[in-house]
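Reviewers asked in the last cycle whether our approach scales beyond single polypeptides. To address this, we selected a multi-component target totalling 546 residues and predicted its structure end to end. The input consisted of the following lines:
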Amino acid sequence: MRPRRRLGSLLLALNILALAVVLFYAAKELAIPTVAEWLYKNDYKELVFKCDSVMRDHFIAKTLVLHSPTDEAIRNLHAAEVGLLTCHNYDVLRKQLISFGLSENDLSRIGLEAIEERAKDVRTFVETHEIRY
Amino acid sequence: MFARLWRHMKFATSTALAIILALSITVWGADEKAFPQILRKQVLENGFMPAKELYINKDEGLVPVGKIVFETKKLSLNGNISCQTCHLSQFGSADGIPNAAAIGGTGEGPQRLLSGAKLLPRNTLAFWGRGAKGFETFFWDGKIDFSNSKKISQFGSQPPSDDALVTAAHLPLVEIREMLDEDEFVLAHKQESVGKSGEVYRVIADNLRKFEPQASKSLAEYLRKPVEQLTYTDYARSLAAFIRSEFRIKETKLEKFTTKSEPLSAEELRGGLIFYGRGRCVVCHSGPHFSDFKFHAVPFPQLGFGKNGFGIDLGRFNVTFDPKDLYRFRTPPLYNVVKTAPYGHSGSVATVEEAIVAHFDPLRLLNPSSMEPLARHELYKRMTLGSETATTVGFLTTDDVDDLKKFLNALSF
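The resulting structure, written as structure tokens, was:
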């Protein structure tokens, strides 16, 4: 009687362990990434767009200083540099989402969705995809 | 069995959510700690000065006299209007209406507008910080500008005072429709001549001596001269002293954040980083008063008849006659800006949010197809000449604009 009870307890413990492992992997591979995407998808899209904008603005601000190094142009460049903090926010969120289990493919897909949502005319598609020298 | 499984699932889900919550707090928290320090550095590097350092008033003793001159309608030769009529505390030291409602009206603010007052083509300016350190450019078009060695005023090479605010206090009371009505005396002296205007100032000083004897006596005692020799410039000195004192810049939340390390809210912090960063507001709104005191064309909608008539206001061009200055207006200082609605040189936008939008997306505020052709043509010119501003200011979302407003509110006192 005793060995049977012990075996029963062992099987129950193994069952619980197996369930815990399954649940852990299900959470890690499925639940957490899904919840994280649901929670942060819109923030991420917004930051994809904003980071793209501030990088472009920063590039223009740099060229402006090269062509006409006035006090205003220099202040403009400094502001554009502070504006790049947006890309820091983008990096932080990207890192966070990766740590939550989202893959590079997932992040690329969300980024493309952000572009699609903003691309309401042909011009936007051209700007996104044209080759620039 | 199922109950047990359900309990395990609940435990796993709760754990996952707890992990997410904990991670989001720790990851965001760690990286955003640097932002307040970055903002503080930007504020200081772009000319911020504590309120106490901005205040200068050589004639502190004249403040009580200046208060009387500010409030008396005898300052107006024939218009029954005082400075206070249009500079009211309940409207943040302006009048709360788009175009100033001057002589010929009754009441204050909107009530005055509806009472048949003569309208001026521009929005009444608030008084915050006027005459403080670094504030030497006055009016929308900078017609008084003592910021450089070449002092610009309507008095040519002989301004009545070396003090820009005292000189500025000479203008509204000789501006027809503003504080002066066109009677026989005014028509006889209505010439662009310093001598003729001198006669008008002499009569105004006589009026003040007659109707404000106590204030005149105090003024004469302070200046150590006989009452009979008081000139309008003496009264203007007292006005300047009062304006400096009454509308001085006081400590703001931003100052406490910058100098005492007190916190800003998350929205204010984000707004600050937009102001000094992505929005590029700081390119023009820099310096101790959050203005470069230069002139820029921002395509605000035009409201009212306009300084140049038919809904046209050529802005700074009216002062310099330089085509480069067409449609340009002085960068507005930003202390207490959230209290001084409406906004723009003609008061055409009602909220701070719209005023921000006018800088980067002006067409959002208008419906061009329903505009009069001339108004649309003028808008086109303002937008073309405002391209410098348009290429500087960054694109902002609605949330960004809200955050920016919260930051501007931290400049209130």
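The mean pLDDT of chain B is 90. We regard this as preliminary and will revisit it once experimental data from Aim 1 are available.
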